[in-house]
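Interim report, section 4.2 (structural modelling).
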Amino acid sequence: MKTIPLALAALSLSAAAAAQSPQSVSGQGASALADEALHTDTLAWDFVEGLTTEVGPRLAGTEAEARGRDWAAEWLNRHGFANVRIEPFTLPVWVRGEERAHVVAPFPQPLVISALGDSGATPAEGITAEVVPFMSYAELEAAPAGSLAGKIAYISHAMRPTQDGSGYGFAGPARWTGPSLAASKGAVATVIKSIGTDYHRNPHTGGTTFAEGVAPIPAGALSLPDAENLERMFQRARGRPVTLHLVLTPRMTGEAQSGNVVADITGRDPSLPPMLLACHIDSWDLGTGAMDDGAGCGIIAAAARQVAAAGQPLRTIRVLMAGAEEVGVFGGEAFARAHANAPVAVALESDFGADRIWRLETNFAKANPALHQRLAQAVARFGVLSGEGVATGGADIGIARNQNAGIIDLSQDGTRYFDLHHTPDDTLDKVDPAQLRQNVAVWTEVVGILANQPGMIRSKN
Amino acid sequence: MKTIPLALAALSLSAAAAAQSPQSVSGQGASALADEALHTDTLAWDFVEGLTTEVGPRLAGTEAEARGRDWAAEWLNRHGFANVRIEPFTLPVWVRGEERAHVVAPFPQPLVISALGDSGATPAEGITAEVVPFMSYAELEAAPAGSLAGKIAYISHAMRPTQDGSGYGFAGPARWTGPSLAASKGAVATVIKSIGTDYHRNPHTGGTTFAEGVAPIPAGALSLPDAENLERMFQRARGRPVTLHLVLTPRMTGEAQSGNVVADITGRDPSLPPMLLACHIDSWDLGTGAMDDGAGCGIIAAAARQVAAAGQPLRTIRVLMAGAEEVGVFGGEAFARAHANAPVAVALESDFGADRIWRLETNFAKANPALHQRLAQAVARFGVLSGEGVATGGADIGIARNQNAGIIDLSQDGTRYFDLHHTPDDTLDKVDPAQLRQNVAVWTEVVGILANQPGMIRSKN
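Predicted structure of the assembly:
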């Protein structure tokens, strides 16, 4: 017989072995449905279209989020999920108020601003103060103590779009802790260049955190066109002070209820720990939460349904649509607390939009190389590469991190994600139906394999 | 000698003739500067950057428009224009108030809306009414008299982006006369799908006109994402009424002053009627008026300066930066009235953004074919084609139409113009510096030829 290269021979053997293993039967059924989902899935679209049209924005702890939970529970019931329930928890609620900004001098004109989550408030009539520009977070760090007394700090950055979303980590501190840092140096307010990559007059909101002992100050994000206009004003002012009038009147409304929506595709073997598919049902208030994270909930729900359609899986597939993620992962933490003693085998989260998945990573490439390889080979036909990193999971699957359980990251293309993230522009029209279906196909493939995997995935869970 | 094809021979002869004619000396000087401007012009950018940064929005009849006039006059003086003056006129002024909309039932959520110019107002507390959808202006026309009593009319359209901007004429009636038509059938308010082509949460404002005897009703534009969300609600409501709460409180503030900014590059022969280069200095209030029409003013001013740099032109080049164009061409009409007895030789306007010029048309291809051909040949190297149509000119050069003077249209690429037109997104970052320079180059070429043209252009003017 002819000599064949070793790698090809190994591949043939492994394919033959897979064809004979018991789990591959159901896995192959889901595989066929994954192929079909790539071209025909309508479930994920139906979910995100329905949620954004019939509910819209779903700010954590508001009645709108409650309507979102009820809507999702009804959808899951209607689509044959079992044990659909809402697991309540409470959180302190922050709501937006008035928000306006205008340059008083030397170049009077309005600027478009939105308050950051947990921002402090100005008086109703606003404040007027000189603006001190910092072209980076590092510049602000270098400002002497007390040097911002009575001033408004402006923080810029040079965020760039990237496929892996890494620009967010680079620019994010301006929002996450910039206002607190400025406050600690005496600033009466902070305005930042939106942590985003688009040039539309739609600021990017998102949470900010004030350090222990630092009283919250008003903190808002300018859209990129407004931020860069302000930067040009500093250039053209040639040393004259630039003065801003700012009205931001958000407020804390007290403790209120939120909840996690949980539902199952019940497996054949209740003794096996379930796998967990997560997304979050809340959204920021400015958009309708289509990419963040209506689409993610649509993807996981559609994939679970597709796998169920191939026959009852061996292992229970549990869907977690977490509440109150945006404002501090309250839902994910409540779930981890409530289910601390119920082992999870493996967890995945979809919370990075709806553009195509380009990379698969797991946290068990060493502990379970055969399964890792099987998953990597199975998704390759959808254009998904196997990454070199170790999966750490999304915000809402802390339970899997706590338990040292299996985690898989299916990385979505983030190139345009930060054009939309936390803005009014996060609306249904931004979801590309073809890329959404590729997500469903990849998830169906991966969930189909894992839900029919009898043995250990990462830990003895 | 070798036989050469006839067309090429004709071209050689014509080029030789041009090289010997007196006007071609200066024309060629401007031609060289046009070539250079394509790569190096900074004047047009300096104008539009300065105007949008130091002044910002310039709503007709407001103090902001007055600051825009003063800023432009100062710029023109600083750049060596002669006879820089402001020619005042008055107009009734409309200003924006509060604007909010939300769906009350069956799917409560906010929608992003902006009032149309000359919209009527709701009471401060707003109105709540059922919405009747019309998927086109024609559908609204077909609605029976009185059928909209107590209702809010919603008007949709299917505008598409086009290079020549023709989609505007197709979709525009929904804004221009839709509210008046709906009011005549009893509607208490009208909301339209923005007359635009982008999917951002930035509505397109613009003027609406109520017919004689029709009392103005509140009229606003939803952004396209909001409009299409509302359309999906009609689908999903399955016959249940869709109810909207609407707050729009614009008001007329009375008669106020506006003005035209006029300046000259003085020609060598004062007996020749001047050529007129027009743009408008006012803008809608939502954006900073970069594409509409700060860039246009930058283009014409830069081209006039480039031509002057090649040597004093034969004919005076007059620059008209008209006031109050957006709200009803008040400036252009005031100019036409004030200068009715002062002949204009030829007029051109730049008021369609800052993307590349792709077509030249004149209204003297028959009356003066040699000049038309010379212009067409001269701009060909910038990628500009000669069109088959007859130029009719921009809104502000009615004076040329009144006088049967020469008119040239230098058509800009409108493919993305209606993504930005009359929106908050009309900001400096949308101006592409390379395409802006192509505009300056083409204008410099055309103005250089015309300003050094001794004979008749179209009429005996």
